[in-house]
Amino acid sequence: MEFTLSIKNVGKKYGDVIALNGVSLDVKKNIIFGIVGPDGAGKSTLIRILCGLLKPDEGEINILDAEMPKDYLKIKDSIGYLSQKFSLYADLTVDENIEFIAEIHGVKEFHDRREELLEFTRMKKFRKFLAGNLSGGMKQKLALACTLIYQPKLLFLDEPTTGVDPVSRREFWLILAGLLKEDITIIISTPYMEEAERFNEIALIENGHILAVDSPAGIKSRIRNTVLEIVCTPARKAYDLILASGDDELQLFGDRVNVILDKEAGSEEKVVKLLKDNEIIINDLRKTSPTLENAFIHLLKESA
Ligand code: ADP
Prior knowledge:
Elements: E1 3-14, E2 17-28, E3 32-36, H1 43-50, E4 58-63, E5 66-68, H2 72-75, E6 79-82, H3 94-104, H4 111-120, H5 136-148, E7 154-158, H6 166-179, E8 185-190, H7 193-196, E9 201-206, E10 209-214, H8 216-220, E11 227-233, H9 235-245, E12 249-253, E13 256-260, H10 267-277, E14 281-288, H11 292-303
Parallel strand pairs: 3-8, 3-9, 6-7, 7-8
Antiparallel strand pairs: 1-2, 1-4, 4-5, 9-10, 11-13, 11-14, 12-13
Helix pairs in contact: 3-5
The protein binds adenosine-5'-diphosphate.
Adenosine-5'-diphosphate (ADP) is lined by residues 14, 17, 19, 37, 39-45.
């Protein structure tokens, strides 16, 4: 089969809350696929359904050529799952934690693989440390090594970098990119648009709906216009003024207003004059290409 994972019309409610609504996705083999959206969008629910921890109310799910949840036992050892709340055994060492997970999954010949993973995650020096004494970033790398000891074909990571410092985060991304040399597909959720730039493909999700599935470049190309980025004070007032004055799509990010310029010439000059006439201080002004965040908000407005 061409896809590692293929789902159709998956739905899930918690009481009256619709967490997922008609979600369909096809994920190719051997890529990093991102599920990207704000808090409460339905990312965790989707991942937990995909790795067999939660039953959907409806929909078809095919994973590694098995029908889920019916054939879950056939593929359970081919799936790895790392949540934000991964659990390690604090009073076991790094080595022992990995060995323990290998045993649970019936992997007897784990020694070579463990060496490889410790090398790969640069954890060799710490192998005799108790897991409880590791830093946050190291704990996370150990949890990843534990998940990889049984060589899953499909790895689910639910917001693995939330709350992790930037340096460890960067290292974690390099480790994941390196993993693709093996026969593995990585599905990862994140609320951070800038992280999503690193993925091969992404699904943008909001309110239980998929807004778009494409490569980051493909998603960005859905806004064909240029973006006029204005850093100004007070930004909120500038936003309100521009909004009242025309039809350009606007997005506000803290002290930045982004105007998605339509093709009509002269709109930049119009906006600048408007702000100057109203005594808005323009600290910086430039035309940029749309970011993923611009595209996400654009798609969100379009779908509403
Ligand atoms: P995300 O991972 O994107 O933050 P979730 O899948 O956790 O989103 O949540 C999707 C929606 O379902 C949210 O509105 C959330 O409040 C709700 N939800 C999640 N888990 C439960 C639960 N166990 N009971 C009730 N509502 C839940």
